[in-house]
Every structure is written in C-alpha cells, then in structure tokens.
Amino acid sequence: MSTDSQTVEGGRWRTAVAAVLGLYAVGLVLAEAVLQAGAILATALALTLAVTKRLRLEKDVRAFVVASVALCGWQLLSPALALLTGAAAKWPRGARYGQALDTVAAAAVACIGTLGVPWLLLGGIIAGGWLLAAGLGFFQHRVRWPWEPPAFLKLNLSRLHENFGTEESPRFAAGGFFFHRLRFAHGAIAVLGPALAVLGRSKVTRQRVLAGAVVLGLLLSIYGAFARAALGAALGVCVLALLLLLRGTPRKAGLGVAVALVVLVLLTPAWRERFAKAVDNLFGSGERSLAMSVGWRLVQERPWLGVGFGNHKPAALATQAQTGITDLLATDSHNIWLTAWAETGLVGLLLLAAMHGLLARALVRRHRQGSIVATGALLSFVGFHVLALVHYLPFHPSVHLSFMFVWGLGLCGEGVSGERGIPFHSPERQGRFGRDGSQDPPQGS
Predict the structure, then answer these.
(1) For the purposes of burial, counting CB atoms within 10 Å of the CB of 426, is it exposed (0-12), middle (13-18) or buried (19 or more)?
(2) Phi, psi of 433, deg, nearest 5
(3) pLDDT for the residue numbered 1
C-alpha cells in the first residue's frame, strides 16, 4: 500500500475514533442512551482494530484489557452456571444482563485511543456540558421543575419534585439532564478528578480558570442533588488532589475552600438531617444495612459461583419472608464488592479485584510519568471506590460508563508515550493526533 493510501486510511480511522469519543463525551452530560451508544461503538471499533491487527497496546494496558474481557466473559457465563447448579430459577432480565458489556468500556476507550485522542474536542464538550448541567441543576434545586418532559424520554419527574427542605423553604433534588439525582451526582464524581488534575497541574492559565469553574459547578451539582455519599467522596477527592498536586499557599487556600464547603453543608438544615440519618442507614436498621445483610446472606449460601450476574433481585426477594427486604432494595447489596460476590461468586470477585488492581497500577505509572489525564483518572478512581462502599455503581450505566470513559482516557494518557516514557510534548511525539494535525500513527511498545 502506498504512503498516500496509508495516510488517507489512517485519517479515516482517526476520524472514526474522534466521532465515537465525541459521542461518548456528549453522553456524560446529556443522556444514558447516548452514553451506551458511545460505549457500544467504542467496543465495536476496538474489536475491529484487534481483528485487523491495528491494535498496539503497552503491557500494563494489555493486562488490564485482558482482565476486563475475562470479567465480562464470566459475568455473561454466570447465569447459565446458576441455572445448572439450581442457584437461579430463570435467566436475568435482558437490560440487567446486558450491563455486563459495560465492564469492557474502559478497555475499549483505551484501545481506540491508541490511534489518537482529540483532547481539545473532548475537553470542550465535557467542560461546557457540565457547566450547563450545573446551571440546570441549580435551577432544579431552587425551583420546583415546572415542565412535563415528553413521555418518550421516560424521565421520572418525581425525582425532581422530591423536597429535602420544608414547605416554607423547599429545596428540591437536582438531577441535571439525567433527571435523576444520584446519576447526576455520582456522574459528577467521575468528571471531578480530571477537572481537579487540570486545575492543579496545567501551566495554561485559561485552562486552570475553566477547570476551576467546572470543579465549582460539579460541587454545586452534588450539593443540589442531596447525595450524601457523593458529597463525602467529592470532598475526599478534593483534599487528596490538594495534597497531591499543590504546595504552599495554593494548597492552604484550597483546604480553606474545602472547610468553607463543609461549614456551608453543616449550616443547611436539610443537609444536617440527611447526615443525621446516615449512621442509622449504614449501621442501624436503615436501608443500606438491610440490603448489605441480605447480600451477605446470599454470599454465604452460594460463595463459589454466586446466584448469577443480574440475579441479585430475585435471589434477594426469595428471602423476603425472613429478611423483610423490599422490591426496591433487592436490586443489589449497596456495595460493589458484596454485590459482585453474591452474583458472580468468588471467581467474579477475584476477577473484579484483578481488573481494578491492574487499572490502578497502570494509572499510577502514568501519573508518575507526568500525565495530567492519568492523574485525573486516578482521582476519579479513588472517588469511585469511596462511592462503591455504599452503592453498586454499575447498576446505573450512566454512572458506571462515565467512570469507564475517564479511566480509558487515563490509559491513553497525554504526557506518557509508552514503555520508553517519552513525554507527549517532546519533538519525538509532535506527530500525535491533536497536536499539529499530522497523521503519523503513534508507535506501540
């Protein structure tokens, strides 16, 4: 094939990658269906690259991809094993079963990102979109949502009419474009990590100002959603970012802002009431405590293979006479590790631990080599696991896929070039897509 033909073909592949990643980025803000479409297309594109032998992955990324595919495969297989062993009476719901494919979304983004990532496009979409979403969320927090969404959107308006204040001074649950306060707030944690990384490490003043505005918008979004775990995770991630990325006066100023935000929360009556109920919710007779106890019961009954991926709800409801579990609480164990163990057994639990461990190792390596994107993904990773202690985040694809997108981009990592550790801004890497527009493909190790 001639050089010109190779250049044209390479340009087409890059255009396809830019389109898929752009669509995925829009989904982070706009709608779950758009997120799912972006993830599916990214997976299909990654498979095409693998089949056509265009895929070149670094060793640590390759290990993460293999672990992700293995976990996804086990999740897809586990319902059949549950049926064979008598742990389940029927196949799980199609929508719940299909969530197994979300497991490979980060791996897919990391794979297609080897052809080049349009960083400016993605940064503009995510920053602009979340600032709009934050503005909408602030409106929803202060004003009872006045318009009925079109029926075909299947949006739950009652979520936005939930009043956490008083009749005299109402404060409603913000949900942004998702119309769901937990999807909105937990999705904000996924984006918070990259925004903090740019704020703390970028040398371009305009980027830092924009990142600061996004961080503020994200924190206000979480505050307006009345999501306790998300607010705790956000504050933890912010403090970690300050300790990791800043020194001297900027660090002290940032810690001062964090303290001010805590004081603001404590001065808000609705938030004080929310936190007062949190201890009982976790350690007393609350909802999460009940859901976790039922999940542990399922683990004890089927420790090795579980009840099958997606079968937590019917298995939990089978204990309703003894435990009193409700239909709503039976969906999962409100903890990612406990839910994974209950559904996919010890095998699935170990595969999940391997996937996240390999991801963390790869992100830490790139963070140490100077990748801002990897630093942001690492902060996002920490936020995810704080939330995962009290939420089964994969149950909401909009949340899970948001984190997967950020992690996949972190493995593409601007600032790290591969086994040799060549900075992306060096002359050796100026052909990288998104730098000077040239079509030279990146070299894998």
Answers:
(1) exposed
(2) -55, 135
(3) 52
